[in-house]
Design goal:
The complex is a heterodimer of chains A (about 120) and B (about 140). Chain A has two domains: about 10-70, no CATH class; about 75-120. Chain A is built from five helices and no strands. Chain A has helices at about 1-25, 30-40, 45-70, 75-95, 100-120. In chain A, helix 1 runs antiparallel to helix 2 (about 30-40) and helix 2 (about 30-40) packs antiparallel against helix 3 (about 45-70). The N and C termini of chain A lie far apart (about 50 Å). Chain B has one domain (about 10-130). The longest helix of chain B is centred in the C-terminal third of the chain and has 26 residues, at about 105-130. Chain B starts with 11 loop residues before the first helix and ends in a 6-residue tail after the last helix. The chains are: A mainly alpha (about 120), B mainly alpha (about 140).
Chain lengths: ~120, ~140
């Protein structure tokens, strides 16, 4: 019974993550990582890696709906994707070279500022 | 007649650059598309749903590549991922369908609130919780 409840909990949390991710067009990863790390007790790197595996199919499903709803043109989608792909490689390359803690602090502040900006 | 006049012409160079910046942030593990959407909406002038679509789609190729790398390093807990994915698939589709009933401005505000909440949450985590660095 306990195993079933644990499994159900995971499915429900997955649903919450999927809902938020689909509705906001992202951000699911930011919910999954703390869940995997602090609730499921995964190590930081493993939490991040597993999170991507979770978010990928979920985002893919949501993407298909967005595409069918014609929210973006193919050319724009492809162009941004190309940029993100290259940026991702650069980012992964830069990652080991920068202090983790300060990076998180700086980006948290940027996030808050960006969020406030988006309210207006 | 279209309800919202959707702007669709953007300078390819600029959205490509926006992608690079967003991708760098994502590649450093700072929560995927965290900054991509604000960049696209604030600087490029995309509508919120369009930026959201861009974010979701753009991270697919990058995620695939990253997963291959991480899987080889045995960092991925497949079992833990499975149930989460099962729950998330339908919800993800539902969430994406839901946006059509919401005005772009409202979506943007929702996203802004999410960013603020998460920024504060992460700040607290980094400053107070992650005292022992466990890598």
């Amino acid at each position: 019974m306990k195993k079933f409840l644990k499994a159900l909990l995971n499915v429900i949390i997955g649903a919450v993550i999927g809902l938020v991710n689909g509705f906001l067009g992202g951000g699911g990863g930011m919910l999954v990582v703390p869940y995997l790390r602090y609730v499921q007790k995964l190590k930081a790197k493993s939490a991040h890696a597993t999170a991507i595996l979770v978010i990928l199919p979920i985002s893919l499903a949501s993407s298909i709906v967005y595409i069918f709803s014609k929210q973006i043109t193919v050319i724009n989608a492809v162009t941004v994707s190309g940029g993100v792909f290259i940026g991702g490689i650069i980012g992964a390359f830069l990652l080991p070279k920068i202090s983790d803690k300060w990076l998180s602090i700086i980006f948290s502040i940027i996030m808050i500022v960006a969020g406030v900006r988006m309210l207006f | 007649m279209q309800k919202f006049e959707k702007k669709e012409n953007f300078s390819m160079l600029w959205i490509f650059l926006a992608g690079i910046v967003g991708g760098i942030v994502g590649g450093m593990g700072m929560g995927g598309g965290t900054l991509l959407i604000p960049i696209l909406t604030i600087f490029i002038g995309m509508e919120q749903p369009t930026a959201q679509a861009a974010n979701l789609i753009a991270f697919i190729p990058m995620s695939i590549m990253v997963i291959i790398v991480y899987a080889k390093k045995h960092l991925i807990e497949f079992k833990k991922a499975l149930l989460l994915v099962l729950g998330g698939l339908g919800a993800g589709i539902f969430g994406a369908i839901l946006i059509k009933s919401v005005a772009p401005k409202v979506l943007k505000i929702c996203f802004g609130i999410f960013l603020i909440c998460f920024g504060i949450f992460q700040l607290i985590l980094v400053l107070f919780v992650d005292k022992k660095s466990e890598n």
